[in-house]
Amino acid sequence: MQVSAAVVTHKEQPLVLKRLELDEPRQGEVRVRMVASGVCHTDAIVRDQWYPTPLPAVLGHEGSGIVDAVGPGVTSVEPGDHVVLSFATCGTCKSCLSGHPSYCVNFFELDFGGSRTDGSKAFTDEDGQPVSSHFFGQSSFSTYSNVAERSIVKVSKDAPLELLGPLGCGIQTGAGAVLNVLKPEAGSSVVIFGTGAVGLSGLLAAVASSASIIIAVDIVDSRLEFAKTLGATHTINSKNEDAPARIKEITGGGVDYALDTTGNKFVFAQMLNSMGILGHAALVGAAALGTEASVDIGTLLMSGLTLSMVIEGDSVPQAFIPKLISLYNDGKFPFDKLIKRYDFANINQAFADSESGITLKPVVIFEQP
Predict the structure, then answer these.
(1) Which of 302, 289, 243, 288 is nearest to 269 (CA)?
(2) 245 and 184: one domain?
(3) Does 127 have pLDDT greater than 70?
(4) pTM of the predicted model as reported, rounded to 2 decimal places
């Protein structure tokens, strides 16, 4: 069938809207009519080829939409179901079977490889040339896409699909790192480094956990002010203040839990130097491959620090995304405050506004038939 898709044709260049041919859903695939898709930092760094998904490619990995058709063997959804799309996994490796699918041993191939496992691609251009598909199992920057069943999360038909796409990656990443990995107790202290969409999702999760001290750290005053409206009890502009020293002053010796969403090696070191005894720190920021950070191992050893490297919030999307929707419905996780909507035709503006910081979480909306 003919679809309209935003295609990355060349490294570090704007996406190009093109008419492509989408093949029929195959074994274990679901054809989804997209209602919306979040624009994520990971889309930008793959566009710029930090990670080598073959170009040309249809990216997008925070889709939401309605099931249009199902391929052979699909049992979890049927046409007409409303769905949110998340990352792809094999379902058979040790990590998947133990409830940690974001550490699937086949994650890179399935989510960044640009094709099905047999090498075939779902899209072809007007010249009959293949275009990379199945980005995170979904390639949601297309009006329709063939999605891996394991990327599918069925949601209620009264859920707001135009908002829900970012739950599939960015918001799941920040919130999951806090709720699934750090698990702060009521009354504990939490610091969030970086107040973009991922960091503020972690902050909202800390609020939902009833942490008593929630510190937001950034270098943009307007974002820090916004963090206060979401529940931050303290803010630090680390360009103007010594963040670790200020955090230790606020907490009386060091923070219980910390989340770095920046992927910046200097921020990472700041986080580790902010921890209290037996603190737990987590890193989720996607940095360039080869990034190295220097820390004093001897000092950290004496703290009993736990450090977790977290992918996709260590979530099982089919369980965690409905949990976030439930929290949202109860008024305890207002992630909609992070979102700004764009027409699909303006997807490059959405990328630009995200990169400049004008918009925290862009969501492109597809024109409905």
Answers:
(1) 243
(2) yes
(3) yes
(4) 0.94
